Amino acid sequence: MAQNFRRYTGNNIGASPSTILTADSYDTIVGIHVTNIHTSAINVDVYINDGANDIYLVKGAPLPLGGALQVLGTGKVVVQSGDALKIVSDTAASVDAWVSCVDAIST
Predict the structure, then answer these.
(1) Alpha-carbon distance 83 to 6, whole Å?
(2) pLDDT (tens digit per residue) in 93-106
(3) Smallest Cα–Cα separation from 101: which of 85, 90, 82?
(4) Torsional sign, CA 70, 87, 55, 29
(5) Tell me, what's the pLDDT at 74?
(6) Which candidate, 4, 70, 86, 95, has a CA 20 to 30 Å from the CA of 76?
């Protein structure tokens, strides 16, 4: 069975949470890469809102000037319909994000 690979991006993410993707089925997030594009060090949160709770993948992760973070490493995260991946920084317009996902995993 062929898999549907997807990518989602966010540019200039700042101090208000930015929804990068909202699952429409059972999906698997296979990579989350965030980069500091600001002129100084920042802190970043990456979390999933399941409709009732925020579940943090990283909280207050420091990113130095020009630094980047591969949030999942070699792990994967399964999300279900309605789950939203969000990213927020402590500084306006300071983060770019790239998310790789496999869409519509069979249940």
Answers:
(1) 16
(2) 999 999 999 987 66
(3) 85
(4) negative
(5) 80
(6) 95
